[in-house]
Amino acid sequence: MGVRVTFAGCGDAFGVGGRFQTCIVVETPEFRFAIDFGASSLVALAKLGIEHNDLDAVLLTHLHGDHCGGIPFLLLDAMLGARRRRPLTIAGPRDCERRLAVITAALFPGAEEMVATFPLAYRELPVLTPEALGPLSVTAYPAAHTGATHPTSLRVEVAGKVIAYTGDSAWTRHMPALAEDADLFIAECYQYERPVAFHLNYPDLQAHRDELRPKRMVLTHFARDMWAKRDEIPEETAHDGMVIEL
Description:
Elements: E1 4-9, E2 23-27, E3 32-35, H1 41-48, E4 57-59, H2 65-68, H3 71-80, E5 88-92, H4 96-107, E6 120-124, E7 131-133, E8 136-142, E9 152-158, E10 161-165, H5 175-179, E11 184-188, H6 202-208, E12 217-220, H7 224-228, E13 236-237, E14 242-245
Parallel strand pairs: 3-4, 4-5, 5-6, 10-11, 11-12, 12-13
Antiparallel strand pairs: 1-2, 1-14, 2-3, 7-8, 8-9, 9-10
């Protein structure tokens, strides 16, 4: 196995098309991590037979529930049910540790008193500076989304391959660098006709397509009108359970 990318969830926040929320699992023979971990991610992983205890890290693009809301469920099951012993690193935008603690306390009052029974580390990813995380080199780029979520896009180098993901973001001047020569560029594509602020929409991708030069691009995170057009557009689109070998 080289690098395997599995879209455990490729959906938006609202269950359009019956898809699970964002959770993209990347595997190499030595390391396994997820990019984003929406609230439905444990269910999505279980459906695919992927053990969450096997994840070495979770990388978060921003702090909206459909991208990070599964972390409390992951941690609680790791401690109480799955009996995790393997170290886990959760890396994301600034303030991610404190904000995830608040989310956990809101969903499971009293859980904030629990102490992890396995080595658990949080890392804040600096912007525009490559960060080593085990065998990964992770570069966070500024994203244009809800400011309170501290949004980023991520470019990850692992096992000689590059995987880039816009996260939720309107077009930014950084996206050509994010996508440049990436083996896989995963791009949000929220609306088909009517652009929505703070998101990358199909008209945006069309307008800037010549500026994006990845080796392969896959569109994800569709709202209703984009979901209805998914089979009519020429671009490759994600679906839950989709596997890409790099």
